[in-house]
Write a structure and sequence with these properties.
By secondary structure, this protein is an alpha/beta fold. The chain has helices at residues 12-24, 64-72, 79-83, 102-110, 121-134, 141-144, 183-191, 200-208, and strands at residues 4-7, 35-40, 43-48, 55-57, 92-95, 113-118, 147-151, 163-168, 211-220, 233-236, 240-246. It has one domain (60-246): 3-Layer(aba) Sandwich (Rossmann fold), CATH 3.40.50.150. It is globular, with a radius of gyration of 18 Å. The relative contact order is 0.14.
Length: 249
Amino acid sequence: MTLEVRASPGFETAAETLRGALEARCWRHEGTARLALEIDEQGLSLVRDDSRPPLRLRLDFAGGRQGYRLAHSSHQREDLIRALGGLPRDSLVVDATAGLGRDTLLLAAHGFRVQAWERHPVVYHLLADALGRAGQAAPLAAIVQRITLHEGAADPASLPEKAVAAVFDPMFPERRKRAAVKKDMQLLQALMPVHPDSDAEDTLALLRASVTRRVVVKRPLQAPALGPRPPQAAVRGRSTRFDIYPATT
């Protein structure tokens, strides 16, 4: 199916640029859900038109609870930060699967310089739009300045400086229980009906060979570890586990 790109008055040029970027990637929506991208004065949104009411996803780091948490909370207590093992502030960290950007922002808020990749073109543009808006809002501007976002599969070997660590969040396995799924996950599942991280083990091996210290892999609490060898250690949260693998360089 095609994914419609719509624009409010005054945003037609931005919509045409976005259409061109998606066409250049030769990307096509493979699912059956009726999805559209909308651009207006509030930013870029992913909309599912065939649900009642329509589902809408717009990433917003500048406002709401997430923006406040990033700017004011102590990140040292976060499980992801603990799993990275006390890296010095200003360390270069790779986020191999930026997704909706929550971990990316957390890493930058802690003081790391973050090189982040997102391979899905629609998710990439949603995140790039949100980071652009957050970069204009104090006090998040200083946090966003520490993030460089790339489109495509993670390529840490292309960086002029070797990263100290990497974070990798392959998409979680499908839930076995019929539990309510959050709106953003419903839209992502509709956007990506085909699992995009079938090469997760190869990505883990690539990252381990590309950093100087460790790779942290985010997993559901009860999910098996990624790859044939067990992690060196893990930090366990309420529903998520962060597996730690040493660098192989």
